[in-house]
Specification:
270 residues; single chain; five-stranded antiparallel sheet; alpha+beta; elongated; 19% helix
């Protein structure tokens, strides 16, 4: 006696019955080399317009508004165990004092579609460019000190680039790899490179080494800018979480920075 699909599905474990044969419209067979074939659809969509050259165009855009109040603490609370090279050498100000002095910035990060490059543009106000000693993109959620993903000093002279108040640079895989490689000793192991688990390697720890990886972390909301000065060296002067841009149209048409070679630089602080 023939049993319906519904009856057999609900009682298969009990009766061990077989399903009815699939109709012609859903029949699937194994062709050569195990390839599964099925009757063609009655609708054929138009072919997509494929143009690999568009991979070089600006794709996803992120932005950040940097302020003293995104720094997690005051410089006077720098831990006592902090190495001397990460300590301020100037007179520090509180976050409220820096805000009152107009310390702020707006940054945009634009990734090309093929994720081989990222263009960074940041307008800084209220901070003397000659006092800047470090500028980074870090991995981390708001309120924590995360490792450095991009050390901008490997791509450009920070003070010269900031002289007119607008910082612009192009980032490639080489800058990310160079940042990781520039960390030496116990401090460098913790401050250089964003550590991520690798499921394909059995959970082994690896470090982000590509612009594509940088874009993924940005999409997760876990990248931030941190601009350091001689007076605000450990925590930083202004900081801004990098989030998806509210207005991609304006950001995508901003000037694109020229390519900069990777330079050698000493390990940087947080």
């Amino acid at each position: 006696m023939r049993v319906t699909r519904a009856m057999c599905f609900s009682a298969a474990l009990a009766c061990g019955c077989a399903t009815t044969q699939p109709t012609e419209s859903t029949t699937m067979t194994h062709g050569a080399a195990g390839i599964i074939t099925a009757p063609p659809s009655t609708y054929t969509p138009p072919a997509p317009a494929l143009d690999p050259r568009r991979g070089q165009e600006v794709g996803t855009v992120f932005e950040a508004y940097l302020s003293p109040h995104q720094e997690p603490d005051e410089e006077e609370n720098t831990p006592g165990t902090t190495p001397q090279q990460f300590r301020s050498t100037g007179t520090s100000q509180t976050r409220a004092q820096r805000e009152a002095a107009g310390h702020r910035a707006h940054g945009v990060v634009r990734f090309n579609r093929e994720l081989s490059r990222a263009w960074v543009d940041v307008r800084v106000e209220g901070i003397d460019a000659s006092t800047v000693n470090m500028f980074h993109i870090h991995c981390g959620r708001p309120g924590i000190l995360g490792p450095i993903l991009v050390d901008f000093s490997l791509a450009t002279d920070l003070q010269q680039n900031l002289a007119d108040g607008v910082f612009s640079v192009e980032i490639t895989n080489a800058h990310i790899v160079g940042t990781t490689a520039s960390g030496h000793g116990p401090v460098g192991a913790f401050t250089m490179g964003c550590v991520v688990p690798s499921p394909s390697l059995g959970g082994a720890v690896t470090r982000v080494s590509t612009v594509a990886g940088m874009a993924q972390i940005a999409a997760e909301g876990e990248l931030y800018f941190n601009l350091h000065t001689r007076s605000q060296t450990y925590f930083g002067d202004i900081r801004g979480q990098i989030l998806r841009a509210e207005s991609t149209a304006a950001a995508a048409t901003a000037p694109v920075a020229a390519t900069a070679p990777v330079a050698s630089a000493p390990a940087a602080a947080r």
